[in-house]
Amino acid sequence: MYVHNVTADAETFTCNAYLVEGDRTVLVDAGSMPGVVDVIADRVEDVDAVVLTHQHGDHIGQLDAVLEAYDPELLCYADHPRRTRELDDGDSLRIGDEEFEAVYSPGHADDHLAFVGDSTLFSGDVVVYNDGAFDDGSFGRTDMAGQSREREIESIRELLNRMPEGVEDMYAGHGDEFNGDVREVVERALERAERREPKYPDE
């Protein structure tokens, strides 16, 4: 399975959007980078599905463009007018060559899902890596309306409980990709979240 960050060259604010090539070509989040459809087209001819971690603007800004270009299935937790499959906690889905379990993980967003496989984690914004606030294990912001640090902490704990041993690849919604002991990164994110200090103290 090959994972390519199709928003890596963005000059405007966006999430990391991952094109996963394999048995089932899937885009994990669409991002908000203009031209993302062209980046996808340089790599594949078709997209089977788009899977959303959540529906914040930086994750879905280019969703309509992707749906128009490829007419893929749309899988997500919260309602969306073009959703073809509702995902709930514990649902299974195939991304690339691997089976994943959807883990409901609110706190940063009420509709947040992470996707856990035997070797790979698509963490969305529940856990991120080298995001500018913390190196080597961080978490999505929880200081805006509708967000909750306490719920975020519960979600990170749940993610640890559901994540099998041996997960070595983490693709987060922001920051860098990580290859290594993903559990250690998630544990560090939990420790930092549990301190309950502001993630961005100057804002």
Concise structural overview:
22% of the residues lie in helices and 23% in strands. It has 203 residues and is an alpha/beta fold.
Helix content: 10-25%
Q: Could you give the count of β-strands?
A: 12
- Report Rg: 16 Å
Morphology: globular
Q: What's the helix count?
A: 5
Number of structurally distinct domains: 1
Element order: H for helix, E for strand: EEEHEHHEEEEEEHEEH
Provide mean pLDDT, rounded: 96
Strand content: 15-25%
For the record, the CATH class is Alpha Beta
- Detail the poorly predicted runs: none
GO molecular function: hydrolase activity; metal ion binding
Domain Metallo-beta-lactamase: 14-174
Cofactor: Zn(2+)
Enzyme class: hydrolase
List the helices and strands and how they pair.
Elements: E1 2-5, E2 18-21, E3 26-28, H1 36-41, E4 49-51, H2 57-60, H3 63-70, E5 73-76, E6 85-86, E7 92-95, E8 98-104, E9 113-116, E10 120-124, H4 149-162, E11 169-172, E12 178-179, H5 182-194
Parallel strand pairs: 3-4, 4-5, 5-6, 10-11
Antiparallel strand pairs: 1-2, 2-3, 7-8, 8-9, 9-10, 11-12
